[in-house]
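Input structure tokens:
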């Protein structure tokens, strides 16, 4: 099993969620986060004053999936969230030792 963490632009969330549903992803966790990468934020003009925004709003999606689905999930997220501009986000894939469903005490892939 793997944990897939995708940091994407907020306006791409619906596209990503729909695309993941179409390939059979049944659950995910979503968090509103702020951060920056290579673009290091940007400056905006408000009422004639320029100010710097260091941390940009992003969405973090977390999915636990069987090893066999990881490549499909990653490629789906990339296709659905890509704009071609700086700041499109990142995807991290990490191993997961175990998953336990609290209600039924199932573990492993049965708990996903």
């Amino acid at each position: 099993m793997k944990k897939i963490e995708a940091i994407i632009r907020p306006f791409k969330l619906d596209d990503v969620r729909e695309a993941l549903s179409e390939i059979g992803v049944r659950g995910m966790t979503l968090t509103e986060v702020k951060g920056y990468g290579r673009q290091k934020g940007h400056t905006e003009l408000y009422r004639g004053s320029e100010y710097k925004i260091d941390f940009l709003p992003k969405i973090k999606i977390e999915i636990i999936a069987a090893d066999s689905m990881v490549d499909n999930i990653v490629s789906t997220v990339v296709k659905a969230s890509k704009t071609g501009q700086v700041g499109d986000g990142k995807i991290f894939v990490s191993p997961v030792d175990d998953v336990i469903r609290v209600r039924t005490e199932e573990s492993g892939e049965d708990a996903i």
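The chain has a mean pLDDT of 91. The first strand starts at residue 2 and ends at 8.
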